[in-house]
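F.,

This is the one I mentioned.
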């Protein structure tokens, strides 16, 4: 069941989303060669808690981090630890914050130092695909129009859409209905209505679309070892379009 939020609920979710955006803004200043993913995690947790929220991911199904920190060929769910970031790496940082019972959720992929032109193009295309999807986020439109727009943009440019992980509704639960693939035909699924809150999060690989999970049962990597990117915003459907909740 897709839960449409009231204006009171949306007010809370705007603030949860703002805290997520502030955390991204802070971490961006620290993502440099020499820092560990654990240090980034500690910075994020401190900031989230300083605003009266809690990290959505910490303890979620046993996850130990406050953020997901996924480097290079790691797609999602990277566990923060002793890994030291190096010049030329790319790191996807997924952040969730829970405030007064409601979540905000956003992921961004960052360059560490100077990255290759190939990796920069991967990041640019993945970010652009997110906004291509959001262009279809309008009341009355079918949900799969978002999915189709992302696929139609990224695949002709030579990139692969990951099938195993999808966007989702957000609210009192971090993952609510509906599930939102980032591929597929248009004109399918439920019609969008004002008050729906959705996390749209294309995950795109430079090589093949196939991924696997490492022995830690969390970290997802590309099968071919090529780099990948992940961009995500939480949005609310409005009377005329959409509102991004996870930006300043």
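My design for it:
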């Amino acid at each position: 069941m897709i839960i449409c939020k009231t204006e009171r609920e949306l007010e809370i979710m705007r603030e949860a989303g703002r805290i997520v955006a502030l955390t991204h803004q802070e971490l961006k200043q620290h993502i440099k060669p020499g820092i560990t993913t654990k240090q980034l995690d500690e910075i994020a947790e401190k900031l989230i808690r300083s605003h009266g929220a809690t990290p959505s991911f910490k303890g979620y199904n046993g996850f130990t981090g406050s953020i997901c920190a996924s480097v290079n060929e790691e797609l999602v769910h990277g566990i923060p630890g002793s890994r030291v970031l190096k010049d030329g790496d790319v790191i996807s940082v997924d952040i969730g914050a829970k405030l007064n019972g409601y979540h905000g959720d956003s992921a961004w992929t960052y360059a560490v130092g100077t990255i290759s032109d190939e990796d920069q193009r991967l990041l640019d295309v993945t970010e652009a695909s997110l906004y291509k999807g959001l262009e279809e986020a309008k009341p009355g439109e079918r949900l799969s129009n978002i999915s189709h727009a992302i696929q139609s943009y990224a695949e002709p440019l030579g990139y692969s859409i990951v099938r195993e992980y999808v966007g989702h509704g957000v609210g009192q639960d971090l993952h609510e209905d509906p599930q939102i693939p980032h591929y597929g035909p248009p004109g399918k699924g439920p019609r969008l209505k004002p008050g729906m809150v959705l996390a749209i999060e294309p995950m795109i690989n430079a090589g093949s679309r196939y991924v696997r999970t490492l022995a830690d049962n969390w970290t997802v990597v590309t099968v071919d070892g090529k780099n990948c990117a992940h961009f995500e915003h939480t949005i609310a459907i409005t009377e005329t379009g959409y509102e991004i909740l996870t930006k300043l």
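The mean pLDDT is 98.

Talk soon.
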